[in-house]
Structures are given as C-alpha cells and as structure tokens.
Specification:
- The chain has about 140 residues and is of the alpha+beta class.
- It contains three helices and six strands, in the order αββββαββα.
- It has a six-stranded antiparallel sheet.
- The chain is globular and about 40 Å long.
- Residues about 120-138 have low confidence and may be disordered.
Length: about 140
C-alpha cells in the first residue's frame, strides 16, 4: 500500500505544480500539504503514511459517479463532502485518473475566481480549456 500511496501523492503533487500560479504549504496542520490557486484550495495531500490520500474539488454529479466507480474514491475528507472527493491507492487508480482529478479540481476553483485573478489556463471563453500544455500561452 505504501508504494501505491506514495505514487498517488507524488503524481498529484507533480500535476498540481505543473499548473500556472499554484502555491502550496501547510496552513492547517503539518500533515496536510495544501495546494492553492489565487489563494483558493484545490488539492490537499495527506502526509500521514497510514492514510495516503488526496482530496480534490469535484462537480457533485461527477463526484457521485467516481465514488460508485472506484472503491478507493470516497466523499471528501476535511471539506464539504458534496463538492470534494478523496482518492486513496487502489487497483483502478491510475496516474491519468489522478492527474485528471487534480486538473479538473484546479479548473473548477479557477473558474470561480474573478476574471482578473484567473490564471491563463482558464481564461478561455465558456470555460473551454486551451489545447495542449499551459506553456502555449508563453
């Protein structure tokens, strides 16, 4: 479990740090690595080796589908269980699923920011993501 949990957490951290204007730290407790965009939380990585999970923001309908489809995805810990999910290591939890969850969470949070505070990744009309990586804007 530890190796799978480490990969889950490392994948989530890499995905978050690859996004524009991300900051992270431990504002709540030393065991919770919190990732933010413009001061708003979109990812929490639990540093407890016995509970290797990540928690991300998720559209409520999509969250329920994820919870039904994956045994190791549960309603979010620490936050509103309707809008957040927690992912633990499991046989069907792939790096792509983790990366998509982190990116979707980031986009959900960034889309609610005032236009002037939105990172370039989300400054598309009607919330459409730009094609390719965020470096295309450079």
């Amino acid at each position: 479990m530890n190796a799978a949990g480490d990969r889950l957490q490392d994948t989530a951290r890499r995905a978050a740090l690859a996004l524009p204007d991300v900051s992270h730290g431990y504002p709540f407790t030393p065991g919770l690595d919190v990732y933010k965009v413009a001061g708003k939380v979109f990812l929490i990585v639990t540093d407890d080796p016995d509970e290797q999970i990540i928690t991300v923001k998720c559209d409520p309908e999509h969250a329920r589908v994820q919870e039904r489809g994956y045994a190791s995805i549960t309603p979010g810990r620490y936050l509103d269980k309707r809008h957040w999910i927690s992912m633990g290591p499991g046989p069907a939890i792939t790096e792509r699923l983790i990366t998509d969850a982190v990116e979707d969470s980031y986009d959900l949070v960034a889309e609610r920011l005032p236009q002037r505070d939105r990172p370039s990744r989300t400054r598309q009309p009607d919330g459409v993501r730009p094609a390719g990586s965020s470096t295309e804007d450079s």
